[in-house]
Amino acid sequence: MGRWIWLWAAFAAGPAGAGSFTPPAGCDGFLTVQALGCKLSNFYRCGADAPGDQWRVDFGVMGAYFISRTDHEAQWVESVDLSPPRRQSLAPDPADPASFSELLASGMDTFSFGLVRDDGTASLVDGFDRLAGQTRVIDGVPLQMTEFAFSETDADTGALLHRARGREYVHSEWRLFFAGPSEWDVGEGFQPIDHSPVEFVFPGEPGFFATEPKYGCGMMMSQAPARIIPARAMSADPKE
């Protein structure tokens, strides 16, 4: 059984409660992030994957809702929305692959690539990430701030599906992006959203691989909008 199917079967049944997340067999967890906007993310790596691949499972008020896998360059490899289940993969031969190495080396990385869903529909993503020249320490972890913008269009019609702009955070050693204050447009104009990290929890610490988000849940009646791009691997449904 594929890992994403395993996770869908494990977590699609009902709302989250206080508990502990267990990754698939052969995988080891290394980080939990409690973020603003009622979002918790658990990160893990699997021995059977290519070196540098990393997985993330996002939890909201109703439980796990999104899974993603990125590679060594923080390229999005695949993602799965859990309710309803929908999988999307990076199309082969991207025109301009996203490169975490290029971002760190030059301070700027552009990207242009395709996405393909299991039902055969496809989209195109174009955008950039740029180091903002600022560092912020969150819960004792130093993070570089970035600026980004991107748009996703239907591959057949060219119609705009969604777009976003704003700031994020990167950790150069972990080769991970974390959401920050930004604006998203899914067809109704730009709306602000902020899933900035608040706590970083490591193995052996209280709250590691928890399943219940802590911050901003009283105001959350549903998941917040987000995007799918290779570095962040976020869902395009109202979430992230």
Structure write-up:
- This protein is mainly β.
- It has one domain.
- The chain is built from two helices and 13 strands; from the N terminus they run H-E-E-E-E-E-E-H-E-E-E-E-E-E-E.
- The C terminus is likely disordered.
Radius of gyration: 17 Å
User: What's the story with the biggest beta sheet?
Assistant: 13 strands, antiparallel
Whole-number mean pLDDT: 86
Q: Which class best fits the helix and strand makeup?
A: mainly beta
Note the total helix count. Answer: 2
What is the share of helical residues?
under 10%
Number of strands: 13
Task: Strand order, main sheet: write it out.
Answer: 12-11-10-9-8-7-6-5-4-3-2-1-13
Please identify the oligomeric state.
Answer: single chain
Query: Span from first to last CA?
Result: 26 Å
Low-confidence stretches: 12-16, 221-231, 234-240
Keywords: Signal
Signal peptide: 1-18
Short recap of the structure:
The protein is 7% helix and 49% strand. The chain is mainly β. A 13-stranded antiparallel beta sheet has the order 12-11-10-9-8-7-6-5-4-3-2-1-13.
Q: What keywords describe this structure?
A:
240 residues, mainly beta, 13-stranded antiparallel beta sheet, 2 helices, disordered C terminus
